[in-house]
Amino acid sequence: MARRGEEEDDDEYAKLVRRMNPPRVVIDNDSCENATVIRVDRVKKHGILLEAVQVLVDLDLVITKAYISSDGNWFMDVFNVTDQYGNKLENTDTIENIQRCLESEDCIVPSAVGPADSVSPSADKSTCIELTGTDRPGLLSEVCAVLASLRCNIVKAEVWTHDGRAAAVVQITDEATGLAIGDRARLSKVQELLSNVMQGDGKGTHSGVAKNCDTAAPSVGGAAHAERRLHKLLLDDGARVGQEAVGGGEERSGNVKARAKAKVVVMDCTERRYTVVILRCGDRPKLLFDTLCALTDLQYVVFHGTVDAEGSDEAYQEYYIRHVDGHPVRSDTERIRLVRCLEAAVERRASHGLELEVRTEDRAGLLSEITRVFRENSLCIIRAAISTRDGVAEDTFCVADAYGNPVDGAAVDAVREQVGHAVLRVKRGSRAAVKRVDEGSAVSILGSLLKSSFQGLRLIRSYS
Asked: How far apart are CA 187 and CA 170, in angstroms?
């Protein structure tokens, strides 16, 4: 009890220090020729760097360079940012909004807590469900079919798959009221049926832990930052099934081309008692956010760092870190886990499939119908971002064939024919992930039809 009291006193003291030293943010458009420079000074706390980066990412800014420094209890950071088109920030309203968000504690999005921890009494417009389990063809279609049968409408969702595992953060509403589901008995039914779907046939899970690693956890209220949660869900899921986040999952086929992973080096800086982490990989949006999620979830603190992705397709990140207990990396096992988790964080969002965009008027059962068409045409969903705005469904799906290879152009044409050419389109710059089927390739077509039939039969079975 005494220790808990000391922790509460420390927490109150930290809050007092932050109130006495409010954040200072300077936005400069003059010192750099091709980027807007944002300087952030704040009282240091665990996760503060990730919070700042998350604010910038959520405002659709691209971070081209960053300089990180921590002096005692003070956190100082410099970000070079542009808009999505590579331009400096010129709009006054945009600049004021960035400054307001970075200076306000209220604009910092919650950390990777569970959805139940982020519930506020007034945030009852949707029910948040978190799912983890073994990935397989048609999994999202089965989830959508179950929710549609229970008269639940999916208003927002993020779905990721990696190394044979799948995770999703889904917000649903009652189809009749358009509000969160408050009936505990109904929530229990949703959880029971979705847990059965995520467990599937039980393959791919370690005996004795299938019930723990294949989960469907509902709660009423607003969800924490979905992408933040997905990183944490897959990290925890990998630890539970013994994968250490990467390396233990099953590839869909041995025919998948080897993909260039991030190059991660972990070294000791003995004289300063730091661990030095150097990461090189192809640059892409939100890369810095993803790597910081991994470091924060593994309970590491970044004291100094440099990030550079300007004028190159390759990103370079260098961090001087310690564990929250003040120690650097102390064992080879810890070192290997750190490397693997950083590789996984980079790989989860890397684009290796065809991106399809769906935009149409929202209606009950729409997502179930679209994912069913994908499944029947042997398109496997690697990632999905689902949202509804002002009655319009705006969804993006990253797809591949059942073996992780580029999809057949004929399959894409068939999906567009069934869903509607005006509803579904191939995202610009994503056509390289399409392969054309040779004319007369009857074997490929017959295999696709048989596969669709078997997958259709599988959905008929009851999960109750």
From this structure: 14
User: In 3D, which of 116, 223, 112, 213 has the Cα closest to residue 167?
Assistant: 213
Burial label, 33 (beta-carbon count in 10 A; 0-12, 13-18, 19+):
exposed
DSSP sequence for 409-450: HHHHHHHHHHH-TTTEEEPTT-GGGEEPPPTT-HHHHHHHHH
Can you tell me the distance from the alpha carbon of 369 to that of 384, in angstroms, rounded to the nearest whole number?
15
Residue with tokens 């599988």: 458
Asked whether 109 and 223 are in contact (CB, 8 A), the reply is: no
Round the CA-based radius of gyration of the chain to a whole number and report it. Answer: 23
DSSP for 289-315, written as a single string:
HHHHHHHHHTTEEEEEEEEE-TTSSEE
Measure the CA angle with vertex 77, ends 76 and 82; round to 5°: 155
With H, G, I as helix, E, B as strand and everything else as coil, classify residue 118. Answer: helix
Distance of CA 369 to the CA centre of its chain: 24
Most confident of the ranges 12-21, 70-79, 120-129: 70-79
Q: Which structure tokens are listed for 175?
A: 């189809």
Chain segment 185-226, per-residue pLDDT in tens: 999 999 999 999 998 755 433 222 223 334 566 544 444 489
Digit-coded pLDDT (tens) for 302-315: 999 999 998 888 99
Angle at alpha carbon of residue 266, lines to 263 and 268, rounded to 5°: 155
DSSP string, 337-355: HHHHHHHHHHHHH---SEE
